[in-house]
Amino acid sequence: MRKTTAPSSKLSSRQPPRLAALTFPAFRLHTWRVNWRGAVSVGGFLLLWELLVRFGGGGFEGIPTLAQVLSTFWNKYLTSDRYWQSWLVSFERVGYGFSLAQLLGIPLGLLLGTRRVFHEVVYPLVELLRPIPPLAWVPLSILFWPTAELSIIFITFIGPFFIIVINVHDAVRSLRKEHLWLARSLGATRGYAFRRIILPALIPSIAVGMTLGIAVSWNVVIAAEMIASDVGLGRLTWEGYVSHTATTVIVGMISIGLAGYLSALVVSYAERRLMPWHKVT
Amino acid sequence: MPERKLSGKVRAVGLCKWYHQSSRPPVHVLEDCSFEIEPGRLTVLMGISGCGKSTLACMLAGYVRPDKGTLTMDEWPIDGAGPDRIMVFQETALWHWMTVLDNVLFGPLASSSMTKAEAKARAVALLDKFGLLDFKDKYPGQLSGGMKRRVELAQALINNPDLMILDEPFRGLDVMTRELMQEYYLKLFEGTRLTTLFITSDLEEAIFLADRVLVMSGAPAQIVKAVEVDLPHPRKFEVLISERYLAIKQDLMTALYGPDTAEEVVLD
Fold first, then answer.
1. What is the pTM of this model?
2. Domain range spanning residue B262?
3. What number is the ipTM of this complex?
């Protein structure tokens, strides 16, 4: 559509722009490949642990061996409903907090990046709140929210929230103007350019925010569970500490590590689906 | 190929552009800049680096407004971007998250100027013409520099623009690819007579491609000379060793750098 002061006959016959869906090529599953170097690395770590506990002396005297930890897990936790409920509850909390952080953080980052007045009003507040560690919100959160569960979800939300806001905000500000100019030249409306140009251009930054955010979510939820919950992997680890049961502490730590790893795999899968061009370039 | 109705006549009168900087005097980029681009001709805009060529190109494309002066195309004032004037930028502006085909289809689908089926048929034909059909499902990151440039040309041409603006499109390509692309664009132009403004700071490229060269002064820039390039069409690289080429080169160098420098360089 020609941007002149009077309509040209050539363009008057054109239909109004219509909506078009985002078109991402279908995700193809990666072929599974065993990372034997990684397996050797994990095996080496476990062997080192065993050797240090058996022969290291000093601070290692109170640490259980791998065999003791596995035995405790096998006898006490593998068939324990409470243990698996801890997994479920922690995953739920991370799921709610992390998803809420994405749902609110992405639009807020977009608004901060695209609306000047909104940026001037809200950004200083974001900069003021952002450096506050998520755990510093715990006392206030417990006072504010009616249940401990809501407090923990809030803390799990606040951890990744500012990461995603800042990532999206910075990504919007570093969008290449040529990409937007070209879209305008080719006749894209603001809405069409937003869906086909701005949103896909932001996906890498959203993905970075997700990767960082999921790790922060797990860090925060474990700490919050230790302080304010009766159940969860954090609580399990804390109970091991207060009852001087080091095997339980280590079962809890390994469980947290595995849970974080599984979450990172889900995020990585989502990233690959959102950015098919990254696989091939 | 049906004969193209010649359009894309550009007229610029007294264009001025200055950029304001906080706590500094404004930078005058263009000052009383006037010129014409004739329809159906390949006009090359030359000038030293940083003289305001890209600013002028952005004005023509409708991305930047002049602070003073008038700018019209086919008698209509240019006051915004549109598919009648498409620009190919110095750095590729292909959207790397879209396949080659989706990049080319963007214009017709965004402006609803064609149905999806029509647009796809046209895009496939264009990509075939540009030797890119086998790469239609690839992403820009998988293409070479020259291929990206060809995709950008297809992306522009599918919209049937009246004016193509190419802002140093072959800068950064290796010498062989650059020469191939020059020949390629010239052939395309000779086949379509699509009004083109080609910006370059390479004298050889300018003379090889141009029907007419506009020479810009340093900032604040004006058009200081217009040189007709009457080398024959279809143009081959052999013209670069003709006497007429050397005469035009000297003429342009005089306009760009002054008479003394021009004589020294051309004789070398």
1. 0.79
2. 1-84+176-268
3. 0.88
